[in-house]
């Protein structure tokens, strides 16, 4: 026995094992086709970014920046780096750095791991995965609505039911400023009810107090001044137009004025798709408009809108519905015994692959019987069986693994016969 202690993955960071990975692959294929159906193009950014990017984009006084980021100093050169907690900041950084927005808006998407140091639990991990969708350089309510419609289509494609849509508008800078002043004054009047978190945020980010889950503060929060009362006409019209398009497409929604989102860069439309079937981690997709972010990261002011969905939560929902891993995609299992047969089997396997088939060549020896057991368990459609005597006769056996008669086939005819059988 080894004396080395077994090493484990970092807490909250999951291995996705082959039995589950098939579902991921199917999901990723479905999502790619769906995004292409709306003209979105793929972009891939690094996992590590300068810490300053996230502080500036997400906001200093947010859960993510205050307590969830994996930030560290690169001890080789002193750089301050952070594993990305989300993708929007990196996506905008990349678009600006490479001048993508110079003379055309961009519809972009990315997919990959995000990192947040949260308390791991069902649906909440320290490394998790998102599909992120960003429309950069678009001002109108049509794009906000299109992104919401897109989501609805994806839920239909995936067979996801029981998700509901909540929307809100956060207005623009001036309205938020007025609202902020009123909120601070209101909460100051009731400072005896505020918890420590709220007190700390009172002057830095009072809007986030509205997001508190503390039961003792719920009455206070319910009666707080409403942003809705401060909105100017333009923001209201934008919001009305988004709703109008949703109604035209018969997308049901609920206006939730308490939806503020945990990141500072949002303005105007925000939305979340929520299910009640995943316990507390019920938000599977969230997003909204971020018209100020591009300028904040150093670009010319340009409007934008986007959303991200959590892959683990979506797949958990699919698994709740009994969706399981599709069986491995394999056409042929090649069984062989004897030295001559083994050499020929290797050549036959390559010829079958040349014909476009998915082939598993048995490795590791063993009796015909034990190899056939493996072939049966492999989910392949048929086995090709090769023995020394058969090779000398220029033959092999093709055996269907899900019913049907086996037959002898000339070696040279194998690719054609097996392809025909699989049709
Ligand atoms: P929550 O309120 O659940 O913490 P959030 O507002 O922090 O979510 P966003 O930053 O909007 O989440 O990320 C978009 C989506 O990514 C979420 O709706 C969720 O599906 C998923 N997500 C966020 N954090 C995690 C996590 N730690 N583990 C798994 N999925 C996550
Ligand atoms: Mg969060």
Strand fraction equals 15-25%
In the predicted model, the low-confidence regions spanning at least 5 consecutive residues are: none
Tell me the radius of gyration: 28 Å
Bound molecules: adenosine-5'-triphosphate, magnesium ion
Structural class based on helices, strands and sheet pairing: alpha+beta
**How far from one another are the termini?**
50 Å
Major sheet attributes: 8 strands, mixed
SSE arrangement:
Layout lengths: L17 H19 L4 E2 L5 E3 H8 L4 H6 L2 E3 L6 E4 L4 H10 L8 E10 L11 E10 L4 H18 L4 E7 L3 H17 L6 H6 L16 H5 L10 H16 L5 E2 L11 E9 L7 E7 L3 H4 L7 E7 H10 L11 E6 L1 H16 L4 E3 L6 H10 L4 E6 H5 L2 E6 L6 E4 L3 H9 L1
Parallel strand pairs: 1-5, 7-8, 12-13, 12-14
Antiparallel strand pairs: 2-4, 3-4, 5-6, 6-11, 7-9, 9-10, 10-11, 14-15, 15-16
The structure holds adenosine-5'-triphosphate and magnesium ion (MG).
The site of magnesium ion has 2 residues, from loops.
Summarize the structure.
With 423 residues, the protein is of the alpha+beta class. It is built from 15 helices and 16 strands.
Descriptive tags:
about 425 residues; alpha+beta; five-stranded mixed β-sheet; 15 helices; 16 strands; about 20% strand; binds adenosine-5'-triphosphate; binds magnesium ion
Question: How would you describe the overall organization of this protein?
Answer:
With 423 residues, this protein is an alpha+beta fold. The protein is built from 15 helices and 16 strands. The strands form three sheets. Strands 1-5-6-11-10-9-7-8 form an eight-stranded mixed beta sheet, with helices on both faces. The protein starts with 17 loop residues before the first helix and ends with a helix. The protein binds adenosine-5'-triphosphate and magnesium ion (MG). Residues 63, 262 line the site of magnesium ion (MG).
